[in-house]
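Reading a protein record of the kind used here takes little practice once its layout is understood. An example of such a record is reproduced below.
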Amino acid sequence: MKVKPFIKWAGGKSKIINDIKKSLPNDFDGKKITYIEPFLGGGSVFFGLSQIYNFKRIILNDINDDLINTYLTVQNNVTELISLLKQFQDEYHSLDLEARKEYYYLKRSLYNSRSFGNVERASFFIFLNRTCFNGLYRVNKKNEFNVPIGSYIKPEICNEVNLINVSSLLQTVEIYCADYEKMFDVIDDSKVFFYIDPPYKPLSNTSYFNSYSNISFNDDEQIRLKKFCDKLNAHNHLWILSNSDMSDHEKYDSFFDDLYKDYKIDYVNSKRYINSNAKKRGDLKELLIINNLEENINK
């Protein structure tokens, strides 16, 4: 069964899954491993690795309540969700440009009212994600989604087959909506592998694409996350963390090199797909920060 992310997400990791796989020990056996992803987002690494490894247990988490409601709806109410999305897709495709704008902004307003049931809220979430500018998810301090309409001619709003396959995959998955530190409390006595993909430290003052919730993830939060990684390391849990390569933008910016100096840091090629200036999209470097997997996997 082939599955893929059902939403677009800034900073998706589909292009570096092979780099993540190469960073794992040669004797990595998913059947003995609990996989935890505390910053789920679009879930591209979860979807990619779950088709390579048969994990003993899978735990997914994100602090974004609307995002997690959407995953839970796909998990538990996919048939009703598909029905609504098909309706949205048929209606949207039948409209001209001006009517589409009116339709989009009405749905955005309804979504921001948060006055609907969970299935309806998830359907608005997916509709906006598939039709907004560049698939970007961004909220203001009032937790209002404020991304303008995109310019897609015929966007795919409902991929019924993929949603059904995702729902099937999620049946044995545990899904939480909490601060990432709470994931330490759900660990059992299994060997645990964390893939950690936090909101990235922005490369410039104009590249703040980490407003996925109304809670800011600033440098202090990056430092708090590092302390969480130290805690995982002290308990012999495996982890790989992704973040932006600040030195790729500013030669003397060693924020992450200094912060994670006790761990292995790999530099991998990725792609920038979201920028208002198309000329600034393209190749960029990212970091994969890795604790001592070879040592910990055998403890």
Observations:
- Strands lie at 33-37, 57-61, 174-176, 191-196, 238-244, 264-272, 282-290.
- Residues 204-210, 274-282 have pLDDT under 50 and may be disordered.
- The CA atoms of residues 134 and 274 lie 6 Å apart.
- The first strand starts at residue 33 and ends at 37.
